[in-house]
Amino acid sequence: METIQKKAEEDVTSELALVQAAKKGDLDAFSQLVKRYDRNVFRIAQHITHNEEDAQDVVQDAFLKAYQNLEQFQGNSKFYTWLVRIAVNEALMRLRKRRNDRTVSLDEDVETDEGTIPREVADWSPNPEQLYGTSELGDILKKTIQGLSPGFRTVFVLRDVEGMSTEETAEMLGLSIPAVKSRLLRARLQLRERLAKYFKSKRGEDGQR
Amino acid sequence: MKCTEFLKELTDYLDGKITESLRIELDEHLHWCKECHVVMNTTKKTIEIYRDNQVYELPDDLRNRLHQAIMTKCRNSQAHKK
């Protein structure tokens, strides 16, 4: 336990050192920061935009903006928290552009009741993932999460896929903690409701797969 | 406890962020309410499935290309600043 904590402290220290060096123009230091977080930023961007081309642009623009604005990073939060906030804004902007809809925001559809009253209450197959092949399962998971509003899926991705805390997610998205919690509950319940049709135990019993 | 009250606490219950007394109340509800038990288990499974099956991994060749593009843009922006 002590070792894990020590390791986390070292990571934060080395990260701060990298940020400080990058602020002074050390591009190698910034390159290390990019390598540390590019996969996460790409995943988050893909989940928000649903478009690989847009996600690639978001990764490039988010890191470039972070680099250009490093002076504004005060070190009160983690570099990653600050970076994701930039990336989420970039991703939402791309989504608005593609949908040609300026109203796309993290507040969209917050009032929906969908999923808050569970309709699917049949139990799932014991190992639902094994009902499908890897790529088919991937398609199901993508399609299902894409059906959620941007606000819900962004909170779900940061909290449950990327493993951020409620507090970090709130900071990344500029939302209050109760707002994150309420979106997370709805996102989880909606996903569960939608996945039920693929994972209900009936399918396995039918011997279809 | 009603099912709607249970659902309100579901997220904190799954995250283990509730007081001991509330957890006991929720466990008691789960003990007799089969439907909430299924909802709780399948919501937990939903989270695990998304966590364990990353659907958007960055392929190595694309990662290298993006990295090069980012660093070129940063270098240009630095030169521009000077």
Could you explain how this protein is built, in words?
- The complex is a heterodimer of chains A (209) and B (82).
- Chain A has 209 residues and is mainly α.
- Chain A has helices at residues 2-23, 27-49, 52-68, 79-99, 134-146, 150-161, 166-173, 177-199, 201-205.
- Helix content of chain A is 69%, strand content 0%.
- In chain A, α3 (52-68) crosses α4 and α5 crosses α8.
- Chain A is globular, with a radius of gyration of 19 Å.
- Mean pLDDT of chain A is 87; it is low at 203-209.
- Chain B has 5 helices and no strands.
- Chain B has helices at 3-8, 10-14, 20-32, 34-52, 60-81.
- In chain B, 22% of the residues are buried.
- The model of chain B has no long low-confidence stretch (mean pLDDT 92).
- At the A-B interface, α2, α3, α5, α6 and α8 of A face α1, α2, α4 and α5 of B.
Question: Quick check: average pLDDT of chain A?
Answer: 87
Tell me the series of helices and strands of chain A, N- to C-terminal: HHHHHHHHH
Low-pLDDT runs of 5+ residues of chain A are: 203-209
Kindly report the greatest chain-chain contact and the residue count on each side.
A-B, 50 and 39 residues
Runs of chain B with pLDDT <50, length 5+? none
Oligomer: heterodimer
